[in-house]
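Q&A log
Question type: sequence-to-structure
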Amino acid sequence: MKAKLMSSFAAGLIVAASVCGVVYFFEPAKATSTEVKENLPLEEMRNELFTAGYLVYSEEEWEQELAKIEQEHKLLLEQEKEHETNESPAEPTETIIYKTILNVASGMTSIDVGNALVKGKIIDNAMTFFNEVEKKGLANGLRPGTYELDSEMNTDEVISILFK
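Response status: OK
Response body:
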């Protein structure tokens, strides 16, 4: 761009900004709202707000509502306590028995078998099973095969089935 063109453009911007400033500062202020609402009585304000979907409470009414809710809450808690004390705890009538089919492959150790029995929910602890097998000296007597076991069996019964 040439220098003369550049200075002409700058002078135009200055003139435009000046005109905008004069118009902004010297124009009379216009009212944003010409509509003046008169003060409504309390009931009319409540009705206006109610029709708009709002509920309006005085401080006293609000305290009464809170007290009423607290009373209802206390009654519900008392009813729950009475209900709990009236009911005797029910004895479990059913016991869950887990059955599993265990496939013992050659090369498995008693620790591997114990872990599989824990996964099948036949025993609770694999190390207890391993220690019991070691105590009886049956670690080398594990027989490969497929066995059906259930959670009603005790550790000695499981060991007698799996080891020979």
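Response note: The longest helix spans residues 59-86.
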